[in-house]
């Protein structure tokens, strides 16, 4: 089983790692990777279950375990679109190479709100290098948390806030997912119990994660308790379904403007 290595995953897996109940702690063989790598492990069969970017769940035809995931109901803080030019003038965009759902979300918002569809280049999460090669950059996860938008000399959007403002619905970034024959109710209950164990041990999470990730305890606590939503309900899944519709339409439109050989027309 593959889990994402970012801070926002920690409460989801805390019970799987630290619960005194062996029925919870020893259920899965847990490995960690970037969101894109988790998706690739499910696609290749290296993992049966993973915390999967929502766009990859749709692309691979996976099913999800209801009740838990990574979502926001407003500003998410860890998904930042940073631009050297006005957003409506963006022609090239560097996306974090670990991102898939957020990379597509940036394209959805740029297309729907600003009427632009930039050329996208996938690069490592280094803001100066990214902006050295493109008009704008997308930072996600821990790399975005290390940036203070208020101090940047660039235009910045929190894409969680933009999505919620644009649609009136939550944004779901990732879910526990797997092949349809693997997704069974008992596992979903295990994931919910693991999360609730983590949320009830937030002091332990903050103490363990802040030093290693080089964040202040206040940043970790506020991010995990104020910005990220982990227990998902029907409104969240309504937002997830709408996001998938937007994203797949962007992909279909992009495919239609390709000529044989995959070269943009």
Layout of SSEs?
Layout (H helix, E strand, L loop, with lengths): L1 E3 L5 H9 L3 H4 L5 E3 L1 H10 L4 E5 H7 L2 E10 L6 E5 L8 E5 L4 H14 L4 E5 L3 H7 L2 E5 H5 L9 E4 H9 L3 E8 L6 H15 L2 H12 L3 H11 L1 E3 L2 H23 L1 E2 L3 E2 L1
Helix pairs in contact: 1-9, 5-8, 5-12, 10-11
Can you describe what's shown?
It is globular and about 55 Å long. The chain has helices spanning 10-18, 22-25, 35-44, 54-60, 101-114, 127-133, 141-145, 159-167, 185-199, 202-213, 217-227, 234-256, and strands at residues 2-4, 31-33, 49-53, 63-72, 79-83, 92-96, 119-123, 136-140, 155-158, 171-178, 229-231, 258-259, 263-264. A 5-stranded mixed sheet has the order 7-6-8-5-9, with helices on both faces. Strand 6, helix 5 (101-114) and strand 7 (119-123) form a beta-alpha-beta unit. It is built from 12 helices and 13 strands. The termini are far apart. It has 2 domains: 2-72 and 171-246, D-Maltodextrin-Binding Protein, domain 2; 79-169, D-Maltodextrin-Binding Protein, domain 2 (3-Layer(aba) Sandwich). Helix 1 crosses helix 9, helix 5 packs across helix 12 (234-256) and helix 10 packs across helix 11.
